[in-house]
Amino acid sequence: MDLIFELGVTSDIDELELLYNNLNDYLSMHTNYPGWIKGIYPTRKNATEGISSKTLFVIRSEGKIAGSIILNHQPEEAYDDADWLVETTYDNIYVIRTFVVHPNFMGKGIGNTLLNYSIEFAKNSGIKTIRLDVYEKNIPAIKLYEKNGFIYTGTVDLGLGNYGLKWFRLYEKII
User: Fold this and answer.
1) Angle at Cα 46 formed by Cα 123 and Cα 107, nearest 5°?
2) 108 HSE (CA, 13 A, CB side)
3) Distance CA 79, CA 158 (A)
4) What is the end-to-end Cα distance of the chain in Å, rounded?
5) I need a labelling partner for 93 at 20 to 30 A (CA). Which of 44, 69, 124, 150 fits?
6) For residues 65 and 5, is the Cβ–Cβ distance under 8 A?
7) What are the φ/ψ torsions at residue 149 (nearest 5 degrees)?
8) Cβ neighbour number for residue 122 with a 10 Å cutoff
């Protein structure tokens, strides 16, 4: 499978919105490990903001977006209370957000490839560490992160209890 990792562009927004909706439809019919809700997260707004801030990356297969990830320097407020492995400012840190794989590409290694491309991109950008949060019941994502060298650093409440999402595991990968 020929894959291309690149910065998302404005013309990708419609396709990303469709990907998010297709993924949320898929999750509603299967086990919804991340606890995402169509129309709540992720949405077109996430794609638009990620593209306008030049923090959203896509992975393409045969011209179609197979997956996407946002790498920015904006932690959740709860990150302030965490015991991270590296003490540094957030301009030296990427935070992974809105990490998605299109349902048609699930089980084909796209998530692993997208994560590896992101790690390489961070290395090449002089980033010291990558941080993320993952819903405690999102076992497939937790396994992926741990397989790729992310270290569990604690559990926090991100304030999403109204959506049934109370506890999130924090992970960090030193670059």
Assistant:
1) 65
2) 15
3) 9
4) 27
5) 44
6) no
7) 85, 10
8) 19
Query: In the β-sheet with 151-160, what is the strand arrangement from edge to edge?
Result: 3-7, 56-61, 64-72, 93-101, 129-135, 165-174, 151-160
d(CA 94, CA 147): 19
17 Cβ contact list (under 8 Å, min separation 6): 43, 44, 47
Q: Which amino acid is at 151?
A: I
Under a CB-based contact definition with an 8 Å cutoff, are residues 68 and 96 in contact? no
Token pair 């894959």 is found at 3
Token couple for 102 = 């299109």
Q: Which residue do the tokens 């790498």 mark?
A: 71
**What is the pLDDT tens value at each position of the chain, 175 positions in all?**
799 999 999 999 999 999 999 999 999 999 999 999 999 999 999 999 999 999 999 999 999 999 999 999 999 999 998 999 999 999 999 999 999 999 999 999 999 999 999 999 999 999 999 999 999 999 999 999 999 999 999 999 999 988 889 999 999 999 9
The DSSP bridge partners found for residue 101 are: 67
**β-strand pairing of 165-174 with 56-61:** unpaired
Radius of gyration over alpha carbons of the chain, in Å? 15
